[in-house]
């Protein structure tokens, strides 16, 4: 998502017992324009998998 703009923070969610990824994350951008660009990536492919934004 760095092509969308400056990323201020990321948070990857994990199962608190197993430590395994839950398969999603939160990304905080520095401005609204970056958010709008990121939303355009909805249903695109990332590492061969379709993502939801």
Automatic annotation (TrEMBL):
InterPro entries: Nucleotide-bd_a/b_plait_sf, RBD_domain_sf, RRM_dom. PROSITE patterns: RRM. The keyword RNA-binding applies. It comes from the Eukaryota. Residues 1-53 form the RRM domain. One of its GO terms (molecular function) is RNA binding. The keyword Metal-binding does not apply. Keywords: RNA-binding. It holds the Pfam family RRM_1. PANTHER family: EUKARYOTIC INITIATION FACTOR 4B-RELATED (PTHR23236:SF12), EUKARYOTIC TRANSLATION INITIATION FACTOR 4B/4H (PTHR23236). This is RRM domain-containing protein. The gene is 20197343.
